[in-house]
């Protein structure tokens, strides 16, 4: 049995979801959708994504890894964590997020990518 190897790159994503100060690029392969989030300084989920969806907090469950920069995950219960380059994260539904500092934030998303920033 022979299976074809598939290679894809985020430089040529299958889909791009753009919003103010950010974008979310998606590639789908092997039955999985992987996302790359790129957010500029000043980006905040509730303002730049949630407002367009009519949502005060993100209802997506995320598993991912921070590639560069820093951002928060601010849970609806008040807990706030900061994620930095190299961190692998799980964030349950019910949160806001924003870029920390003056460097763009880039992360890869292995769970939740197909429905993120999508109505």
CATH 2nd-level architecture:
Sandwich
CATH class: Mainly Beta
Instruction: From the 3D structure, determine the CATH topology.
Output: Jelly Rolls
Please name the fourth-level CATH homologous superfamily. Answer: Jelly Rolls
**Low-confidence sequence ranges:** none
Strand portion, in percent?
over 45%
Q: What's the Cα radius of gyration?
A: 14 Å
Question: What would you say this structure looks like, in words?
Answer:
The protein has one domain (17-114): Sandwich (Jelly Rolls), CATH 2.60.120.10. The longest helix is centred in the middle third of the chain and has 9 residues, at 45-53. The model has no long low-confidence stretch (mean pLDDT 94). By secondary structure, the chain is mostly beta strands. The chain is built from 1 helix and 10 strands, in the order E-E-E-H-E-E-E-E-E-E-E. Strand 2 and strand 3 form a beta hairpin. It has a 6-stranded antiparallel sheet with strand order 1-2-3-10-4-7, with no helix packed on it.
Topology diagram in text:
Elements: E1 15-19, E2 22-29, E3 32-39, H1 45-53, E4 62-68, E5 70-75, E6 80-84, E7 88-91, E8 95-96, E9 99-100, E10 105-111
Antiparallel strand pairs: 1-2, 2-3, 3-10, 4-7, 4-10, 5-6, 5-8, 5-9
């Amino acid at each position: 049995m022979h299976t074809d190897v598939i290679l894809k790159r985020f430089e040529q994503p299958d889909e791009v979801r753009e919003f103010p100060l950010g974008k979310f690029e998606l590639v789908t392969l092997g039955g999985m959708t992987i996302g790359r989030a790129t957010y500029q300084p000043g980006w905040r989920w509730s303002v730049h994504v949630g407002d367009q969806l009519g949502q005060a907090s993100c209802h997506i469950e995320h598993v991912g890894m921070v590639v560069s920069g820093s951002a928060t995950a601010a849970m609806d219960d008040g807990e706030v964590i900061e994620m930095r380059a190299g961190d692998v994260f799980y964030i349950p539904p019910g949160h806001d997020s924003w870029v920390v500092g003056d460097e763009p934030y880039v992360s890869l998303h292995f769970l939740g990518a197909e429905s993120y920033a999508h109505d």
